[in-house]
From TrEMBL:
InterPro entries: TPR-like_helical_dom_sf, TPR_IF140/IFT172/WDR19, WDR19/dyf-2. It is found in: Cell projection, Cilium. Keywords: Cell projection, Cilium, Repeat, WD repeat. It comes from the Eukaryota. Signal peptide: none annotated. This is Tetratricopeptide repeat protein. Residues 74-314 form the IF140/IFT172/WDR19 TPR domain. GO terms for biological process: cilium assembly; intraciliary retrograde transport. GO terms for cellular component: cilium; intraciliary transport particle A. Gene3D superfamilies: Tetratricopeptide repeat domain.
Length: 369
């Protein structure tokens, strides 16, 4: 009965009193349990006390365990590794993993434990494991067992950001963390997953941003047009470093839609400075448009565009002189120091005449800097 309950020490004690013939068999079964638990020296002693029907096999097993014990006792990592390799070939994964771990070959120990499906032991070893492949394999195992937090940690350690994002969105309800991972890793597949998530909850602006991030430009544009989020698409395109062709396409779209400011803005980003200036000048005294127009003229280094912008700011084009601060800004952008200084003095005097001494001082200080 004690034998059936796997209470080996009591079973052996009873066998000595009641059934000595059973001692070798109980010893062998006890040795197998000790072997599984990693107590090799005690297991070896019980194997030596046991008998089986095939003495040659028994002798071979005893030799193996003597070798394991010797490798454990010897100093040096290499001997443990070499013995572990032999044991691995013999499919004695538990013993191989033990020697790999003793030799501080943690990646190999974890790999062997994966073969043996000893998930608990793999989890213990992972903090010392460097191989992304092993972390990824463990992540798949944890996912299959529905242990999603452990799977996410493993995928993160494996730098498998696509699967990490999938875990965070599909199983852990951690959308903010998924967004953070995508922004930091620039994972294209992860960005697609995040975009899909935002589309499903009706946050189209966020979905568009992540479609752009995942290089799904056409899908992003179609969604933006269908949901009236072209502005968000435009901002995402500009921030993502789109090609000149994409920027020019967007500029033309805004031009056809009658949006002169954004048409000029994207012609500027596409390097079409003349077109950019014309559209931006059409926006009148809009501050952002004037700032972009000055940027376009400075980037173009074209005398004709410089003259046209100067005349526009001075009111020679439409009879409406613009605030002198824009002319000052233009001269500074073009490196025209003398003209900028003259304009700064004029602005400062005007501000003084209006009693704005602080503003006048700041204008002159900006020129000095």
């Amino acid at each position: 009965m004690r034998r059936d309950l796997l209470d080996w020490s009591k079973a052996l004690a009873l066998a000595e009193q009641l059934a000595p013939a059973e001692i070798p068999y109980i010893s062998r079964e006890y040795a197998q349990q000790l072997e599984f638990m990693g107590d090799y020296s005690t297991a070896l002693a019980h194997y030596e006390n046991g008998i089986i029907e095939y003495p040659e096999e028994e002798t071979e097993q005893i030799k193996v365990f003597r070798g394991i014990q010797l490798a454990r006792d010897l100093h040096g990592r290499v001997v443990k590794r070499d013995c572990a390799i032999i044991l691995e070939h013999l499919r004695q994964y538990g013993e191989a993993a033990d020697l790999y771990e003793l030799g501080q070959f943690y990646d190999r120990a974890a790999a062997v434990c994966l073969k043996a499906k000893a998930w608990g032991k793999v989890g213990e070893l992972l903090p010392k494991v460097r191989s992304p492949k092993i972390h990824a394999q463990y992540g798949k195992v944890m996912e299959a067992e529905k242990r999603y937090k452990e799977a996410a940690v493993a995928y993160r350690n494996a730098r498998d950001y696509d699967n990490l994002v999938r875990m965070l969105l599909d199983h852990l309800n951690m959308a903010e963390e998924a967004v953070k991972v995508v922004r930091e890793s620039r994972s294209i597949e992860g960005a697609k997953l995040v975009a899909k998530f935002f589309s499903q909850i009706g946050d189209h602006a966020s979905a568009i941003r992540f479609l752009v991030l995942s290089n799904c430009q056409q899908e992003a544009f179609q969604l933006a047009e269908a949901t009236d989020h072209i502005a968000e698409y435009a901002d995402s395109i500009e921030a993502d470093g789109a090609s000149q062709e994409q920027l020019a396409f967007l500029a033309e779209y805004f031009a056809n839609a009658g949006d002169s400011h954004n048409a000029g803005r994207f012609y500027l980003r596409a390097g079409h400075y003349r077109a950019a200036l014309e559209y931006l000048m059409a926006c009148g005294e809009n501050h952002e448009s004037l700032v972009l127009a000055i940027e376009a003229v400075a980037a173009a280094s074209d005398n004709k565009l410089t003259t046209r912008m100067t005349e526009y700011l001075m009111g020679e084009v439409d009879g409406m002189p613009k605030d002198a601060k824009y002319l000052f800004r233009l001269y500074v952008a073009l490196g025209m120091t003398k003209e900028a200084a003259t304009t700064a003095v004029v602005i400062a005097r005007e501000e003084q005449d209006h009693g704005s001494y602080t503003v006048a001082r700041n204008v002159l200080l900006a020129m000095y800097q």
